[in-house]
Amino acid sequence: MKVLDRYTVQELFTPILYSLITLVFLLLIADLFDHLDDLLRSDTPLSIIFQYYLSLVPVMAMQILPWAMWFGTLFLLVSFGLHNETLAMKAAGLTITAIVRPILFLGFLLGVANFLVGDRLVPKSYRKAQDLRETYIERKKSPGAEKLLRNLAYYGGGDRSYFFRTYSRIRQEVEGVNIVWFSDAGNAERKKIIAERGRWKDGIWTFDRVTEYQTDSRGQILGDTKTFAQKSYPEIDFSPKELVAAASETQSLSYQELKQSIDRLKENGVRVEEQSVDLHSRLAIPWQGLVMMLVTIPFLAKTGKRKEIAMNILICVTLVFVYHVSGAISLALGKAGKLFPFLAAWAHHMVFALGALLALDKANY
Q: Where are the domains of the chain?
């Protein structure tokens, strides 16, 4: 790496880091004051409050990183312009593309880091924060008690519908089991299973105190009911991991877990527009910072007077605002089924990035 490139990266990374730390700190303070009444009412220990907000740091940092990258780019290019550093680089024969190359390189690396941290660390941190909130702040369960997933509805293969009153992730056990097989013609019930509890062991679901019966198209019981003290069902092939994924918020799932959940829903004929948009967004959102940097560079990398620099800053702020509004609109259209999930997640990125690259090319002349 050239000396000038190292200098540019160093001058950019410092304001990005400061912006990230400052913005995350402000968000944590805002959240603390927002939930101060709940914290005081529940008499939450300081150690738990510290753990809770420490768990929120990765979540907030990945949400704020694109804005920190943008603020850092604004600061760097404005500083270069005010101190005539851009003019000196151009006088040395460098094009704007050559000047901003290390900026874009750092933006690319931070985008990769955003995806990796957001996929590997953020889901775990988010789940831990939610668990601490429910245990010590909202007091939905006692400390040390396991968090049970409640009222789970799941669509499985073979036209089966499942409902479980509770599910224990530690014991891999369900209670309040209600399973319905549907006929091939329509949604008329043909077989129903009710069980007190069940467990997953050696890849097979086994249920206790089972009642089975057949029904006609109107739901009337046909023939005699069958009862079993215990019975295994090898044909019920979903795993506890799939059950947890189906019951979890998309924010608490990794990219691969979300993809597997969507594939399973597709196999069973369930509409997955909203989940598909979330999946594509997992790949698109980490590049927000790079696109915002691209939008800023053609305007602020130009040499000009202070008044021109101020006007260019205003233009950049307006473009970034329009960029985020268009992104929100495209995501809403995608989740409503009006736009392909890929386009819903990527369209505004591609349009603004392409426009910025064309403007950057013109800025060289």
A: 3-136+277-363, 149-248
